[in-house]
Amino acid sequence: MRQKKGVFTMVSLAVASLLYGAQSDYQLDEVTVSANKIEEKIQDVPQSVSVLSENTLQEREIKTVEGIIQEIPNMSFSPLYFQSVNFRGINQSMFTSNNPVTIYINGVPQSNSYAYQASLANVDHVEVLRGPQGSLYGKDSIGGIINIITKSPQNEWGGTIGAEYGTDHYTYTTMSVGGAVVDDVFFINVNGDYASDDGYITNLYDGEKGIDETRNHNIGVNMTWKPIDRLSVQLSLSDYYNRAGAMDIVGVPSGVNINSYSRSDTKFQDWDVHNKITTKSNSQALNLKYALDTMDFTSTTTHKKVEANGIFDLNTAYNGLSSFSETTHKTSTQEFKLSSANTEGFRWVGGVYYEHEDVDYPKYGGQYDYSGYGMGYLSNNDASTQEADTYAAFGQIIVPFASHFEWTLGGRVQRIEKKIDSDYTSTSIDLMPGVVLDSHHYDATSSWTAFLPKTALLYKINDDLSVYTSISTGYLPGGFNNYAFSGGKETNKFEPQKSTNYEIGIKGDTLDGRLFLGANVFYMDIKDIHVYSYSNYVMTATNADKAHSQGIEFEALYKPIPTIEMNGAVGFIQTEYDSYKIYNASGHLIQAEGSTIERTPAYTAKVGIGYTDPSGFYGRVDVRAQGKTYYDPENTIKADAYVVGDVKAGYRMKSGLDVYAYIQNVTNEDYIINALAQTIQPSYDTLVMFGEGRRVGVGFKYTF
């Protein structure tokens, strides 16, 4: 409690210092967002929204979705070989692998934890809609939306090219080039980035160095056609590739404090099977917008394919056993939307949506040592195929009344139909090679229909400052267990996870437009949480009954003088399971009522200050903090709080060349970003993963 009071005191002092200053004529840029699927000033949107401009992304060295997440209060991630996101106590969905925050870029949705990335090379700004977005965006948006807005096409050709080099032979290159092929009619932009890291981990088994090396690229092409003033057609193509090796992981024995270990303990690892995963994705999006006299018609057609193929050593014994996963996920969507053309007064939006998903798991399982039971080594695999169809209709109106008030009322009706065909086999590896010792087949279909309403009330104190209150609902679809040893539909089916979010907030500009300040409090009810359970040591998918979260969030951007800009984003949260009775892998009943929801930091904070001299020199300091975090429902695995600092300095020339140097994690802080309880490896109980150590780098960016 004393620590929380201290942090609140620091926040209060910081806000007070931001509010102090003389008036002047320099201001922050006006911000418009499309949170309600129509363009509006951020002050007029009755919900919490964070906006990161292109300049912000560049200044703060934000190159990935993880970097965006670190800027958002009460949002965090726990990486392994995929990205698992937590926001306000809502975690990644078990078995569906869907995150509670959906990424949208040019209309293409991405919530699957594999390939949870997007190129930021051609971005105008990023909008992060905090809180459930079910009424307009539907399934998988139970926690929020990361909406990545690409730049509008221009007649004049121009772009950027840049590169960086840093610790462990880290390299990063980026480029974006675009312009008009036919002035005012046809435009094209080509963009992308490439990153590599040679790693630092040595494998003791064979002496190989750099087994944690990574390679990835993002490539995008945007083509825009405007045959007439009223019509705009945009085709967007993207390609993503990532290859990752070993992680910064150490095994911690039972009864040992995980915080007593450090990143240096991960430098030497011992694997007879090299851990690696390759992830690929490509997407296509066709956006058509036609401006009628009083409304706009929009059609968005998308397709995305994600492939992930991984193999992982199960233990430190030299027996060649591994776990494996191979999946292909295809998603096609179609949305038709009508919206009012005006950005003030009475506004409305409505539309219909269809989505089809195909998920194929030809390999999903592991190899295990059952020699103690006289069965030798076995390979257990569940090959499954799944299909899902989503049908939805949505609408929302914004009604001004009584001079300064606006009432928002919206909703979405959706129906989701799913089916699965699953074949589990247990095959002998050594005693009777290739002989199937056990098998299980099940197929099932089910459907879920839901109505997701939203209502909000906004009061405009003046043109720049507003207060609001809102109630919104979120939804994560149900589904089927895709690793089933036994049972049929009812045993292997789990229900949708739902949330209701209550929020009150204030936001807007003050001090003659030099300070943007946002603050909100929220309370969220969470029901039917997706979790694992076990019956006779068989893993199944199920739902924990209910939980809740409540917290407060602050955001500020302040420009006291033309050469200095300050920013801050702080979130405090308290979460609790209200009902949780699940069996763990050892067959013990877990009763976690009253426990904190796992993977939810007690607080998150990101503050920074930047200085830009008229001569071209600039520099900035950023500090990021995260509170204590539990990694299991029983709250027996706890990671301590941490603070990480970054610095950057450079020089911008009038020619468009920017040269800079940076240090990330200046103090080389050891901090835990993931911990997994496990029962397969007999020599330890918990796998612990650390965040990146100090990285020193130099770079340049040329704008033309």
List its traits.
22-stranded antiparallel beta barrel, mainly beta, about 700 residues, disordered N terminus, five-stranded mixed sheet, Maltoporin, Chain A
Structural summary, described in words:
- The radius of gyration is 25 Å and the shape is globular.
- The strands form 9 sheets. It has a 22-stranded antiparallel barrel. It has a 5-stranded mixed β-sheet with strand order 3-8-9-6-7. The protein has a 3-stranded antiparallel β-sheet with strand order 16-41-40, with no helix packed on it.
- The protein has 5 helices and 42 strands.
- The termini are far apart.
- 5% of the residues lie in helices and 61% in strands.
- Strand 1 (32-33) and strand 2 (40-41) form a beta hairpin.
- The chain has a single domain (2-27, 158-703), classed as Maltoporin, Chain A, CATH 2.40.170.
- It is mainly β and 704 residues long.
- Mean pLDDT is 90; it is low at 1-24.
Number of helices: 5
How large is the share of residues in beta strands?
A: over 45%
CATH architecture: Beta Barrel
CATH class: Mainly Beta
Total individual domains: 1
Judging from the principal axes of the Cα atoms, what is the shape? globular
Looking at how many chains there are and whether they match, the oligomeric state comes to single chain
Count of individual beta strands: 42
Biggest sheet, in brief? 22 strands, antiparallel, barrel
**Structural class by sheet pairing and helices:** mainly beta
According to CATH, the homologous superfamily is TonB-dependent receptor, beta-barrel domain
Distance between the termini: 53 Å
